[in-house]
Structures are given as structure tokens and as C-alpha cells.
């Protein structure tokens, strides 16, 4: 029987050029508004709670959807997803961010190719800003810190008999990288993988991931 493969990818800074949070903070936040993030970095607040507090402050910004839609994406990502679809390789996008801005950016690809989006839900209005909602605690991908366990997605796929290609860029991505069969890493994740001696393919864009998918 031929091996079954799946592609699991982080979104912010991996599919998109940079984190939505970083870009939004640079445009809309004052230094005082970043205090929840400093509390997270110092261990005084959970990642989900810090992000939610700051996202809720994105109120009264009618230009926010247009701002999101202008965030650059990896130009090779659509081709990679289309190739996976043609080869019947399921694609999972896993994010500690939220579905609102991800759907604005790649909702068309998600619908066209049946991409599975595993992330925190978010309700948005100009009046309330972004209000994130946690997964139920009994959800198989629930994570108390960041909301969504990317490692649980990889583990579940492997339990179902899949081999997994994972792509990521940040420190939280080390957990799914430890579980995956093939790892594409950049930025801080690349350093962490090297430190832990995880066999890793450095990548600048999804051209390298696409090449890998062609060969499996």
C-alpha cells in the first residue's frame, strides 16, 4: 500500500509574510496597549489571553479588513495547496491566531481545495474588535496556553496512518516539529530544531515544500 501523506502548516509568518499580531501592533497599537504581550513573555499571562486582550482593542477601525487583505502571502502557497489536492494529500492550517483574518486571506483556497483550518474562532465587528473564543476543553486539539495544539493535529494524523510534512517558523512550532516526519523550518523554529537535532529542511518559501510534495 502506498504511503499516505498530509501537509500541516503554521499560518502567521509561514504562509503570511509576518504575524498578523506584529503587523497590527505596528500600525494600530501604542506601547501601553502591548502590556498584555509583555505579561505573556514574562510568564504572567497565557498566550491566548494576552492575544485576546490586544485583539479586543482593535475597535473603531473600519479599515482593518482592508489592512488584513493587503498582508503579503507566500506566492508558492496556492500552487502547493493545488498540488496537494491533485495528489489527494490533505492540508491542515494550524494557528494560535484566529480564523477571522486567516479566512480573509486564504478563504478562497480553503473552500476550493478543502483545506482544514484548525485555529481559534473569532467574532469581529468594528464596535467590539476581535473577540477570540477558546475551543472546548474536551476538543482533541485544545491547548490551555495558545488555544490550539498543533502537535495534537500532527499526532492525530500519525495515529490515523499518515506521514506528516510540517512547515513552521516560530517557537510554538517546535512541538509539532518533534512529531512530524519531514520538517520545513525558518526563523526561530530553524534554530530550535538545530538545537534539538531535529532533521530539518530550511526554507525561504513554499517552493521547497512544493518540490517535496511533488516527490512523495
Under the CATH scheme, which class?
A: Alpha Beta
Main sheet properties: 7 strands, mixed
Classification by helices and strands: alpha/beta
Average pLDDT rating: 97
Low-confidence stretches: none
| Overall shape | globular
Explained architecture:
This protein has 216 residues and is α/β, with parallel strands linked by helices. The chain has a single domain (4-20, 69-215), classed as Rossmann fold (3-Layer(aba) Sandwich), CATH 3.40.50.1000. 42% of the residues lie in helices and 21% in strands. The protein has ten helices and nine strands. It has a seven-stranded mixed beta sheet. Strands 5-6 form a two-stranded antiparallel sheet. Helix 5 (77-86) runs parallel beside helix 10. The chain is globular and about 50 Å long. The two termini are 14 Å apart.
List keywords for this structure.
216 residues; alpha/beta; Rossmann fold; two-stranded antiparallel sheet; 9 strands; 42% helix; globular
Short description:
This protein has helices at residues 20-28, 35-41, 47-55, 64-69, 77-86, 99-113, 150-159, 174-179, 187-195, 206-215; strands spanning 4-9, 91-98, 116-125, 129-133, 142-143, 147-148, 162-168, 182-185, 201-202. The chain is α/β, with parallel strands linked by helices and 216 residues long. A 7-stranded mixed beta sheet has the order 4-3-2-1-7-8-9.
